[in-house]
Write a structure and sequence with these properties.
The protein has 731 residues and is an alpha/beta fold. It is 46% helix and 22% strand. The chain has 4 domains: 171 residues, D-Maltodextrin-Binding Protein, domain 2 (3-Layer(aba) Sandwich), CATH 3.40.190; 213 residues, D-Maltodextrin-Binding Protein, domain 2, CATH 3.40.190.290; 63 residues; 156 residues, Alpha-Beta Plaits, CATH 3.30.70. Strands 1, 2, 3, 4, 5, 6, 7, 8 and 9 form a 9-stranded mixed beta sheet that branches. Strands 14, 15, 16, 17, 18, 19, 20 and 21 form an 8-stranded mixed beta sheet that branches. Helix 2 crosses helix 6, helix 13 runs parallel beside helix 15 and helix 20 runs antiparallel to helix 21. The longest helix is centred in the C-terminal third of the chain and has 64 residues. Keywords: Coiled coil, Membrane, Signal, Transmembrane, Transmembrane helix.
């Protein structure tokens, strides 16, 4: 028996070792990775922005699904055909966004709900360039193909009616059949999302956004069941999620796709001014500047936004009362007014636009009243047609009354005549006058959003209302929010500050008075210093004026001296200045220095001057003198003796090579003169140079007349012999 027990224990141990290890409670489960194909094929056209927004919607919804299912997923972006092939090959688990009507003849599974969206557009064959959505004549008589889907058909029919097209619709059982019909020419247009395109189609127009589905094969039945359960979970337990996604992505995508039909465009081009009447002023909803007569506020700013969007001119006017505003509509003195639609039988034949905005109205009650008590007497300010009926239907147990002024409404509640008043939130933000009614309190947690639209008179053109609706589709909501915020900014006044910050304002005023008193004392003290400084500044000014006068005289003297000594054409010293300067230099030259005096005469200058005119001659002289300044040593004195004759004086310490140095300079001048360029063309002049050298220690080297005669003699020899050369007359 003991042996049997031992054997039993051994067998039990082996069985336990063979069993797989149990999972620790702290270890997370290993979830599968789902491979999802997203058809991201985009077509040219304005719908691209809408497609990007819908892609963001689909991505956000998928992340919420993964949060519930604990999926780890990988996204594959490709064409529709590529994604389907990968799904069939088992390389993808899900494909989106698709429409089940496109796969009626295939055995696929599709998701429920609105977990993804796509853009429904109209496409023509790639070689068909004649169809243009802006010209009904190119579409009328066409046949449009679509999938056998009631959702697609109803949306497409609405779009066709809105554009006033006359077309025929033909349904097809699958996306392949629809594409084949387009290529064969059975249909001229097809209504499709990008998923059903082959890549050869031409985008014509967008239609709208449309809910789509996820697709998978029967092999993934369990996966599709998990997906549908997650979608149902979101819809049942987190309904605000879809609402937020629609507001953030779907609505802007529709704004991106808004366009005017051909009929609307024609109306805009010839539309008369649309007069909008307001039943009185109500800041900040509508106000009037009595000095300039302009009307401004939230409503007029919205009309300006509509005018910029449509090109239709909206003109605001203010009536004295409701009755006056309604009379203006009846007598055709106005075409529209802002209103709250409440299905009033009296307004049955009026035309109403889509809601422009939802204006928040905040309740104000007596401070002693309960926040949760249902009011039995409600008073409202007179601002919009239909507002009283709107609140009456929200509060059927209460009696709703209107008063002309919001301040009267606050006073009536404060006096106990009414239980509650609803005031526009922009009014409360701008005026802050509730703070002065200490017996009242604002219930911001129970704000009611009131839909505002434009009400057009019954006989107004229907196209006007439709055009405004199209413009409203394209109005960015952030601009409407900016209009409300800008007009809701409080008017900063003493009463407003006192009501908002009584203690801070009192302390601030004391500080300001202290600062003012200190400033006055310091100003009085500084006044004496300023007077002393004024006297000193006056004396400094007199001295400065005297110095300025001396400086001006010196400048005038220098300018006069420069003009008197300089040749006005070449900038060289003139004959008198050169003579005086050379004589002064020779008189002061040291004994061990030598002097070389050059006389240069331009050959063929007279021919150029006579042939091409005096301007050509002046240009040659200017370029020649500029060349001399460029090539000669800085200590060279250059003068123009008149006509085409120039003189040079060079003095330097005598090192025994003054003749060679003078020859080198003369040859340099000759060479540069031969290549002289004047105004982009050759100057065609040469130079004849006579040089007189007075070496150190010579007796008459300080006599300018003697040196000049020798140089002139050397120049004469050159001119008589060969020109374009130089001679040195040595003492």
């Amino acid at each position: 028996m003991h042996f049997v027990q031992k054997l039993s224990c051994l067998l039990l141990s082996l069985i336990l070792l063979a069993l797989p290890p149990t999972r620790s409670f702290a270890e997370p489960p290993a979830y599968q990775t789902i491979r999802i194909g997203i058809a991201n094929d985009r077509r040219p056209g304005p719908a691209n922005d809408a497609i990007r927004l819908l892609t963001s919607y689909n991505t956000a919804y998928l992340a919420e699904i993964a949060k519930i299912t604990h999926w780890q997923y990988e996204i594959y972006h490709g064409s529709a055909a590529d994604c389907l092939q990968r799904l069939r090959d088992g390389r993808l688990d899900l494909v989106a966004p698709v429409c089940s009507a496109a796969f009626a003849d295939e055995n696929f599974l599709f998701s429920d709900g609105y977990s993804c969206y796509a853009v429904l557009g109209l496409y023509a064959r790639g070689d068909n360039t004649s169809i243009d959505a802006d010209y009904a004549a190119t579409i009328n008589g066409s046949t449009i193909g679509l999938l056998a889907s009631d959702d697609i058909k109803s949306r497409l029919q609405f779009y066709i009616n809105a554009n006033g097209w006359s077309v025929t619709l033909r349904t097809y059982p699958s996306g392949d059949a629809l594409n084949a019909a387009l290529q064969k020419g059975e249909i001229q247009l097809m209504a499709s999302t990008v998923f059903n395109l082959t890549g050869t189609e031409r985008w014509v127009s967008f239609v709208t956004t449309i809910p789509q589905q996820y697709l998978t094969t029967p092999a993934h039945t369990t996966l599709m069941s998990e997906l549908n359960q997650a979608i149902l979970n979101i819809e049942m337990t987190n309904p605000s999620f879809e609402t937020r996604l629609e507001r953030e992505y779907l609505d802007p995508s529709i704004y991106k796709m808004a366009r005017y039909s051909e009929q609307q465009q024609a109306y805009i081009r010839t539309a008369p001014t649309v007069r909008v009447v307001f039943p009185g002023t109500f800041a900040p909803l509508v106000q009037k500047n009595n000095d300039f007569g302009n009307i401004y506020g939230i409503a007029p700013d919205i009309l300006t936004l509509l005018m910029n969007a449509t090109g239709i001119v909206f003109q605001s006017s203010i009536a004295s009362s409701y009755d006056e505003a309604e009379r203006m509509l009846r007598t055709h003195d106005a075409e529209a007014m802002f209103a709250v639609y409440v299905n009033d039988p009296k307004l049955q034949f009026m035309q109403f636009s889509n809601n422009i905005l939802w204006l928040p109205f905040t309740p104000v009650i007596a401070r002693a009243s309960s926040d949760t008590a249902r009011p039995e007497r409600i008073v409202l300010p007179t601002c919009y047609t239909g507002l009283r009926d709107f609140f009456q239907r929200l509060n059927p147990q209460a009696k709703v009354t209107e008063l002309a002024d919001p301040e009267e409404c606050l006073y009536a509640v404060e006096q106990g005549q009414y239980d509650c008043t609803y005031l526009p939130q922009p009014y409360l933000s701008k005026n802050k006058n509730v703070l002065l009614h200490f017996q009242l309190k604002v219930l911001e947690s129970t704000t009611v959003s009131v839909p505002l639209c434009l009400m057009f008179r019954a006989d107004a053109p229907e196209t006007l209302c439709r055009t405004v609706n199209t413009a409203l589709l394209g109005l960015p909501q952030n601009q409407l929010a900016q209009i409300i915020q800008r007009n809701s900014e409080p008017d900063v006044s003493f009463g407003y500050l006192l009501s908002q910050h009584p203690l801070s304002l009192t302390i601030g005023l004391l500080i300001v008075f202290t600062i003012l008193a200190t400033a006055i004392f310091l100003m009085y003290r500084n006044r004496l210093e300023q007077e002393k400084n004024r006297v000193l500044r006056a004396r400094e000014l007199e001295l400065q004026q005297a110095l300025d006068a001396v400086e001006i005289l010196q400048e005038d003297r220098d300018n006069y001296k420069h003009n008197a000594e300089t040749d006005h054409l070449t900038g060289c010293l003139n004959k008198a200045a050169m003579t005086a300067q050379c004589q002064q230099i020779l008189e002061k030259i040291p004994d061990n220095w030598s002097a070389a005096f050059f006389i240069i005469d331009l050959d063929h200058f007279k021919e150029a001057n006579d042939t091409y005119g005096h301007q050509r001659g002046d240009d040659i002289l200017v370029e020649f003198s500029s060349m001399l300044y460029d090539i000669l040593p800085p200590r060279t004195h250059i003068g123009r003796f008149g006509g085409d004759e120039f003189t040079l004086l060079i003095v330097q310490e005598d090192c025994g090579d003054c003749v060679a140095y003078a020859s080198m300079l003369a040859e340099l001048i000759l060479e540069q003169t031969r290549g002289l360029i004047v105004c982009g063309t050759p100057g065609n002049v040469t130079a004849s140079i006579g040089v007189a050298i007075s070496p150190a220690g010579s007796g008459d080297r300080r006599n300018l007349d003697s040196i000049f005669r020798r140089a002139d003699r050397a120049l004469y020899d050159v001119k008589e012999s060969c020109r374009d050369s130089y001679r040195i007359y040595q003492h």
